[in-house]
Design goal:
Three copies of one chain form a homotrimer. In chain A, helix 9 runs parallel beside helix 10 and helix 11 packs across helix 12. The first copy, chain A, folds into two domains: 215 residues, Phosphoenolpyruvate-binding domains (TIM Barrel, Alpha-Beta Barrel); 48 residues, no CATH class. Chain A contains twelve helices and ten strands. At the A-B interface, helix 8, helix 9, helix 11, strand 10 and helix 12 of A face helix 5, helix 7 and helix 8 of B.
């Protein structure tokens, strides 16, 4: 999921070539107050140009802002979905459902405030929400803390949001890395996020897309090991044993389930 | 607490010699679907053979499985307790209480799913539950994440479960280490778990038992320091002071309470 | 916020010279049971001596103790506030409000038990509480865990309490470092706490005050960078762009908001 500012049609044009799963044209943080109308026009133009080559989503301004209504009214036909930032209350999501009426696209909710994190379980179980992301920059700005490379300050929130997404049976995507030159950090965060249960990473630069695609899919070595492990486990089960030693590791049902998941992800 | 597959009577026989506090004969993950009946028979045999030398518990299949009823009906007399995996709802625990009827053994509940972690406070305060464990492998399989040596991906859940256990006034035991050859990891995890508030560690191999026993009891040096600290604190209190410098550390009531606990644990 | 035992008037006298924002005269953990009355007398004397030079607060014994009533009745006029340790229940805070009657000082609540952490959201949103601190030593004593330098065992609680404070719109202050000779640890914990969203650190020794003051305020370099970042962002917005590359980092609204906060903190 690659973000592009709605006010940068020059960048938007290049998006399909990046390898991203989908692009998000951002009417919110990346579009200044004095250019919201221009951003909406650019979204319409981008849809005409790109919708055949890649799924296009729009990030709208949140319902508490003066731009929200106009954003909703300007959603172009064929939009794959919308991204709603800073979701915070069940009442807000009820209202969103109502406002969107018959909109049939995918709705991605952003958990990126203190209240959103605290109430993430109820928010991500709401019928209006089809997927979610955790927004670390906005969350820490709201907390009055400091973003660091180590990510300790977001560890609690990042895990709580992943848990809430699992309970709501939706996919959740991890925080951005604002320093788009730091590929090592981006890759490290992909590994962390995947371990916690995230399914992807928000990208703000084309160079991040390939790293995310590589990290969130299993490597050939991982797939190979998983296949051997599952084979050994199946053979043991047939022989009446469900707990085996496989290359020095105890393998029983949950470990086998993790291996099956690796194989499944690789074949998607 | 040392686990042994119910389908491996050869291993079960060796358990009393391992130094474990108790053994758990596993009818769940370590016993395959086609051998559940055999597992129950082995449990009965093991009880006759071992119950005089060590407390024997059985891990049954969870209430949502087709084996649960038969497991409950096959609990042998004299069983020290049962381990109930994947506890998730208060209703499920109410049902468990009802199903167990007059069973007088100890009941250990496993928190090892997303829902179990999220609702651990209510679950571990339930009257049906006498102790608990955190099951990292199953939890991460349920989250769709990846288990790592660093344990960052379970840090949130592991702490939340320890807190829930404290609020429910029950003892809680930490996750397994599946790689039973990696004693260094096992020892490191014992230290982590003890710091968080866990009281022991699930063992899946006899070699892990001695490490757990050593780690969860204070060392002579720790006991010695705690005794000197408490003595200095008591002396200061008698002189009307409750906050002293002891070997460069400020000691007041909570620090003294931690030292008293070290002495108490060592004398258990 | 620098703590001094109420039974050590020799130390209390030196407090104004330490550079602390406020001093807390401790009638609780640092005053032994047999010296509570003496502690209250010393508090009265300290108020007369120091109240003109520095804000003075008193930490009282918690409402479940036999000393609480006498502490409340002995609060001297002109006290800047009180620190209430181990707040745990909404009912307890209702009672506290009632007991304090027309007391107009600042009320700082201590979250330092398992129950306090678990219910911190409700506690820190209570109208009786104006600020809070997280007490790691008492919390871990209550959990039956072990305090370590790495602070992993308090990571969950420390983040949860910061989040609760943000939701209650109050300032929260971080745990003590009991080893008052270990300046490196104190400084590291200041950086950690500031990142999470804490606004200060409890000090138990005058040498810790300068470190805290330095760490919780932005450095000149940080202020300088923040000013340049905000200037570039404002210029871009005027030109109709709200997402820019600044020294290799993507800057949009939340990143700019963090920079504005740095400038604001520095000018307080």
């Amino acid at each position: 999921m690659l973000f592009a500012p709605a006010v940068r049609p020059d960048l938007i044009t290049k998006m399909p070539a990046t390898g991203a799963d989908a692009i998000v044209i951002d009417l919110e943080d990346a579009t200044p107050p004095n250019a919201k109308a221009q951003g909406r026009n650019n979204l319409q133009a981008a849809m005409r140009e790109l919708a055949d080559s890649i799924p296009v989503l729009a990030r709208i301004n949140d319902p508490t802002t003066p731009w929200y209504r106009d954003d909703i009214n300007a959603l172009p036909p064929g939009l794959a979905g919308i991204v709603v930032p800073k979701i915070e209350t069940v009442e807000g999501l009820d209202q969103l459902s109502h406002d969107l009426g018959l909109f049939e696209g995918f709705i991605v909710g952003g958990i990126e405030t203190a209240l959103g994190v605290a109430d993430s379980r109820a928010l991500l179980a709401h019928r209006a929400i089809d997927a979610a992301y955790f927004g670390a920059e906005d969350f820490m700005a709201d907390m009055g803390g400091v973003r660091t490379e180590a990510n300790h300050e977001v560890a609690y929130a990042r895990s709580q949001v992943a848990l809430a997404a699992r309970l709501g049976s939706i996919v959740v995507v991890d925080q951005i890395v604002a320093d788009f030159r730091d590929d090592a950090r981006f890759e490290r965060e992909c590994v962390e996020a995947k371990a916690i249960g995230y399914r992807g990473k928000l990208c703000i630069h084309p160079s991040q897309v390939a790293i995310a695609n590589r990290c969130f899919l299993p490597t050939p070595d991982e797939v190979d090991r998983a296949e051997r492990l599952v084979a050994a486990y199946v053979e043991a089960q047939a022989a009446g044993v469900a707990s085996i030693a496989f290359e020095g590791q105890m393998v029983d049902e949950p470990v086998a389930a993790q291996a099956r998941r690796v194989i499944e992800l690789a074949s998607d």
